[in-house]
Model the fold of this input.
Amino acid sequence: MFKQREPSIDALRAFALFGILVVNLPFFAITYGFAGGVWQDATPLWANVIAAGVIQGLFESKFILIFSALFGFAAFQQFQRYGLSFYIRRLVVLALFGVVNLTLLFEADILLPYAVIGLLLVFVRNHSVRSLLTYAIGLWAWAVIGNALFGVNMTVNPVPYVAPDIPVSEVLASGSFVDVMAIRLDSWSGFQLYCLWSNYLLVAAAMCGGLAAARYCDALGFDVLIGRLRLIASFAVIPAILGSVVYGVLAALPASAEPERFFMMALILRPLFAVPLSLVLVSVAMWGFMSRSCNGLTSFIAPAGRMSLTIYLGMSLIMGFVFFGYGAGLHNQVSLVDCLWISLVMYLGWVVFAQVWFRGASRGPLEWILTLLTRPGSRRIEVSVSSS
Done:
């Protein structure tokens, strides 16, 4: 499909990493992140409400879908260049990285789910673009329904809250590595239960969409694919923005506004508008990354997209040492507003690190390990644009 790496794809992957960081960092910095109520104790409240609305309306679920679509896009190239056995080996190694991540660093790991959901692509890899898009739309609809059913189940069968002997916030702020790990593992099971209703269905939908985009690109060319994406985004932009703004407002309501009144509406709006806004974000980002006026920006962030595995795990490692008790212990000492600028600074640091790293290396450190363990053997002349 490509005779060399496509910088705009690498830049898009790096762009997705920023969005993922913005969503993940609050869960390290503040107990239960923007999903809890601790962030509302910071002042001024109005500024943190706006920050919560921005994070949930613009970032939550959107950038993980972009990342998932890129996974499906790269999978097509891996099937073509290296074959099925390589792809399976890659999934196994990603699963191992995921187990390490969720055990030691962050319970909301995406690598293990990617490895499991990625198996779906094995069975549909030769299906037509139309069929793949049908699967993607069906999974999207299923995710919306699943989120609604999750809300109904939570309402009908509420789980009583049992306060731990030691508050979670205290353990995260001052506990040892083992103490924090125990809290993370305990949270993992509950998080997975929710994800099965909606999040993983959205991820599967995006992977199928990414695979469909790759097949379409292979048949008609990259420029045609981008043109079609822009056309779709032009129809989706208004409802995507309006729906996401409404979701962000409802999801960020402070306790005094009784947000539970809008619980079901917010649950439905999140997956419903995450997909179209993701498409719009990809269209706008690719327009920028492919334009001559943004060549400098593309060249600046693209290397970070080439080492996305290293950066994804590295972000969790650094955030753990900054915010948890086994490190600096800054947990609950920053606000959601602070989380936004900290995310930007940390992201720029990783972008600069990638620039420096690739002056003397062809792969990121974890990408090198991934390549070593999967042992790819090229069968074609095209060069994959995947993160490895």
Notes: Residues 222-251 form the longest helix (30 residues). The two ends are 16 Å apart (CA to CA).
